[in-house]
Automatic annotation (TrEMBL):
Cleavable signal peptide: 1-23
Disordered: annotated span: 27-46
Organism of this sequence: Flavobacterium bomense
This protein's name: Signal peptidase
Keywords: Membrane, Signal, Transmembrane, Transmembrane helix
Membrane-crossing residue ranges in chain numbering: 52-70
Record bears the keyword Transmembrane helix: yes
Domain of life where this protein originates: Bacteria
Length: 78
């Protein structure tokens, strides 16, 4: 059992060392207002919570459906 633990910890240590070696340096940030080919375009100015009420209502209905279907499948005690 000690041999298996030793091999496991050796492999884990080896993998952590390899990942550090293979990691790339992050690209240098562009100057203010300068666009490069690696920078993504700016996001559109859309509101995040446009349909939040509809999504909350659907989540509530889905939760009720899941609870109801679970109670139908569950055996009842006599």
């Amino acid at each position: 059992m000690k041999i298996v633990q030793m091999v496991f910890f050796t492999l884990v240590l080896f993998m952590f060392c390899i990942f550090n070696v293979l990691a790339k340096d992050p690209p240098q940030p562009a100057a203010a207002g300068e666009r490069t080919s690696t920078t993504p375009p700016p996001p559109p100015g859309l509101p995040v919570d446009e349909n939040i009420n509809t999504m909350m209502a659907l989540a509530l209905l889905f939760g009720i459906y899941i609870i109801y279907s679970f109670k139908l499948k569950q055996k009842t005690l006599m």
